[in-house]
Amino acid sequence: MKTLKRIFSQLHTFVLWALVSAMFWSWIFTFVTDTSPEKKVTVYCKVPEVRATELAAALEESMPEGLRMIQVHSFDYVMFGVDAFYQGDVFIVPASELETYAELLAPVEDGWEMKVYDAAAGEGVATAYISYADEDYYLFLGAGSVHLEDGKALAVARALLEMD
Fold it and tell me: Which of 8, 67, 68, 85 is the most exposed place for a label (fewest CB within 10 A)?
């Protein structure tokens, strides 16, 4: 009984150390499994649901040479670190929010604004991985992408467009 009493009296300390340990190991995991923007292409999807891991794996099958990984995230992924948005390479955005995210998107003078989901027809690209809402969606390259010049963002965007 005394042993249980001692354990429960120190419970808050044990919980605190468990939280600190979890934060430390998640930081280590992120540090080990991530890479610099020059070695990855990041795709952000403003959609109700995206199977990010599966889509990234499918895109990595045709990954441009010189990249280590392709990451796919929903917009919810970047709740606090908004700076990551400005380095995004490919964006899928609903038509209703194009003005909201205009500063993130590369200018479309070269015609690289591509409809990826047609709400009227109910058809789109990568529907096995992406759940679209009932509106049109467009694909853009990121204005701050480090892969605009080398064409790697465009190559990943094209691979995404070829998915059924």
Answer: 8
